[in-house]
Design goal:
The chain contains five helices and four strands, in the order H-H-H-H-H-E-E-E-E. It has 146 residues and is an alpha+beta fold. It has one domain (3-132). Strands 3-2-1-4 form a four-stranded antiparallel β-sheet. Strand 1 (97-104) and strand 2 (107-116) form a beta hairpin. The longest helix is centred in the N-terminal third of the chain and has 25 residues, at 3-27. The protein is globular and about 45 Å long. The N and C termini lie far apart (43 Å).
Length: 146
């Protein structure tokens, strides 16, 4: 892949970081929750489809990680996962966000990452220690966000 193509993918990821920054800082928690819920409900690729895309997946993930490294604002795992999800979606790849929890030092911690088949796309590589929430759509007052 050429440097120009890599720069273009990184540039697109930077635009997605701008979009998610607006989502988090301007539109607020409800908009973040809705975007996350939609991204969690995406059906995953099967392992064979993901394996066929393996080199492209890591190239696209690296574009997000390069963009995150030069993005002037702090980016937490959920923002990075949303950017990764949207970039992969733009490439036609079904990639659900996973949000998980774990107990550590008497505290509950949360983390977000993207899964493509058997691959966890997670720049911090923390996902193996977290148990993901069930992404099954729910109905009723507690399961629906207006």
């Amino acid at each position: 892949m050429s440097r120009v193509a890599a720069a273009a993918e990184t540039g697109f990821a930077l635009l997605l970081f701008a979009w998610t920054t607006v989502l988090f800082r301007v539109r607020g928690q409800r908009a973040v929750a809705q975007a996350t819920r939609r991204a969690m409900a995406v059906p995953p690729l099967d392992a064979d489809e993901a394996a066929a895309l393996q080199s492209e997946l890591w190239r696209w993930a690296r574009a997000v990680w390069r963009a995150k490294a030069i993005w002037p604002l702090e980016s937490k795992c959920l923002q990075t996962a949303l950017v990764t999800h949207r970039l992969l979606q733009s490439k036609g790849v079904l990639a659900p966000i996973r949000v998980g929890v774990k107990q550590a030092g008497g505290q509950t911690q949360g983390h977000a990452w993207v899964e493509v088949g058997p691959y966890a796309i997670d720049d911090s590589q923390l996902s193996p220690g977290f148990i993901p929430f069930d992404a099954t759509p729910r109905t009723g007052a507690l399961g629906d966000l207006p």
